[in-house]
Fold this protein.
Amino acid sequence: MNDNGTTQHGVSVQVRGIRRSYGAQEVLNGIDLDVRPGEIFVIMGASGSGKSVLLRHIIGLEAPDEGEILINGESIHSVDVASKYRMALVFQSGALLNSLTVGDNVGLYLSEHRLKSPDEIRKIVLDKLEVVGLKGTEDKLPSELSGGMRKRAAIARALVIEPELILYDEPTSELDPVSSVVIGEEIYKLNKRIGVTSLVVSHDRDLAFGIADRIAVMHEGEIVALGSPDEVKRSHNPIIRKFIHADFKRQPKA
């Protein structure tokens, strides 16, 4: 339920023939994807596979050389679409401003655009912090929070606009295993609670297989597997097998 007492609905995302090159380097090579409304869709792959570049295209931060991105069937480059659909990006670093309190960070969009009164903003901020398990942190500075707590504060900031689509860029990077599990649980609970479409870019295998409804695996700018977590795990593609089962092989002592 949102602040108006109505249930939110996620949007669909269609990626059609996206190509992107930087000079002679082709980073995205004809990507096609369909993300269903309300699902948790994880784009997984090794570093350099093109997944973060694809995310920036989906949110509209970059324009493709070829192809298009559609939200509910409408191009993201339409002015009407930009104002019609609410999308939020949770940055890999969290991107909190160290000079502001946690509460001021979370409510920054609302206050800068003067969308609500100060009392209304405070109420929304407290509500969103409680949703992500950070009740009582509104007057702290980001430096007083752990890495996992800063990530959750960034999620709370995304929630203030009542998004229909949340994009997460490597949400568990630089976190210990316990904090990573907490972030994964928050993404899952939020998705099920408010019906938002969640698109997660990650190389974290445990996160992907733990929360995803469907997974796309990228390799060298292409989708090499797409399906449910179980379907991806059963893939016989050697690229998928190597990525999923990559592990440190300890050499016996001489």
User: Anything to note?
Assistant: The chain has a mean pLDDT of 87. Residues 29 and 222 are 6 Å apart (CA to CA). The chain is about 35% helix and 25% strand. The two ends are 62 Å apart (CA to CA).
